[in-house]
Amino acid sequence: YERVSSSTSTAPSAHGTGGEGGGRGVRLSVVVPVFNEQDVIRITHQRLCSVLAALGEPYEIVYVDDGSQDETPAILDEMAAAHPDVRVIHFSRNFGHQAAISAGIDHARGDAVVVIDADLQDPPELIPRLVERWQAGYDVVYARRMERQGESWFKRSTARWFYRGLRRLADIPIPLDTGDFRLMDRRVCAVLRALPEHHRFLRGLVAWAGFRQIAVEYVREPRLAGTSKYSLRKMLRLAADAVTSFSYRPLRWPLYAGAGWTVATLALMAGEAWRMSFAHHGISGASLLITFSLLGDGVLLLSVGVLGQYVARIHDEARRRPLYIVREVVGGRPSAQEGNR
Ligand code: UDP
Ligand code: MG
To answer: Residue 339: what pLDDT?
Structure first.
């Protein structure tokens, strides 16, 4: 945390324009997680470059190739060869979107870091507005989706649900309808780098980190080409990571369910006992009892499942395997520390 405290103490009300600190005068780092995006990546690169060139500040683009299986790695290397300010971090395999962003942040050298998707759903043209807010003194400028175009009803409604559900569950307020498209000051990045946890829900971690945060609103465009790289499985995993990282509440549900279940069963048993001894009914409510106990089994298994979600994550943290593995870093200017985490 050294870097955090030392730079905090000298923080001006607005971010200075000196460009000292950070890395070799890089003002802005743009981190782009990329997984099998051969159809869009060149266009993304062009649009990013023209936006960044117009800003007139020294910049770098850090592409994180998340174990792509198509032509993406070769295209990225080509781009790095053509442009000294482009660096490509190749993962040894697919580690997932959040790991890719973490790697990008770990490798970024700028005074501010912008995270943006590779599929142009997040318009690069919004970056100047993010930078403007940063220069006005904000440490985190996140882009909030006003509208999502060209996405399925399923995606839009599950996302809507997810953000609202998470807001109710989480112990800290996590901004609604906000993806990973955002600008972060290097102080915030230093906090993120220092966090040891594996199952990262970065939007939550950034909210948790605090600092001065502000939203900029935008319309999420349709993906330019290709299909979503977020399978249902990856979406579910992200949701589970988000909930388990920021809420203990699901752990209380088995307790409530167990208590409710026990009370109900006791009541049922009392009722049966009464009927058998006073109303001389024989063993009547047998089928009712069976249904009840089957329901009980369901509640029990569900509860064990909830516990499992947390235990598995504790296990992962205990194993302390790296968050990602870098196969190769291509392009850019040499730097002091590169590696796995
Ligand atoms: N991505 C990644 N690793 C993955 C899945 C996705 O790096 O395992 C990247 C992907 O290339 C894109 C961004 O993460 O730049 C967002 O993914 P996508 O657009 O497929 O998700 P959606 O916008 O459909 O939620
Ligand atoms: Mg997308």
So the answer is: 55
How far is the centre of ligand 2, averaged over its atoms, from the C-alpha of 208 (Å)? 25
pTM: 0.75
> Which of 75-84, 244-253, 331-340 ranks highest by mean pLDDT?
75-84
If you average pLDDT over residues 200-207, what whole number do you get? 84
Which 3 state secondary structure label does DSSP give 321? coil
Tell me the pairing of strands 140-148 and 213-220. parallel
Beta-ladder partners of 30: 61, 114
Cα of 220 vs centre of ligand 2, distance in Å, is 9
Mind giving me the DSSP string for 245-279?
A: HH--HHHHHHHHHHHHHHHHHHHHHHHHHHHHHHS
E strands in the chain: 28-34, 59-65, 86-91, 112-115, 140-148, 178-185, 213-220, 326-331
* CA gap 37, 108 in Å, rounded: 21
What is the number of alpha carbons within 13 Å of residue 87 lying toward its C-beta?
Answer: 25
Can you tell me whether residue 23 is helix, strand or coil?
A: strand
31, 108 contact by CB (below 8 A): yes
Q: Which of 317, 329, 334, 332 is nearest to 103 (CA)?
A: 329
Distance CA 32, CA 181 (A): 10
In this prediction, residue 289 carries a pLDDT of 75
Give the integer Cα–Cα distance in Å for 188 and 205: 10
Protein residue with its CA nearest to atom 14 in ligand 1: 97
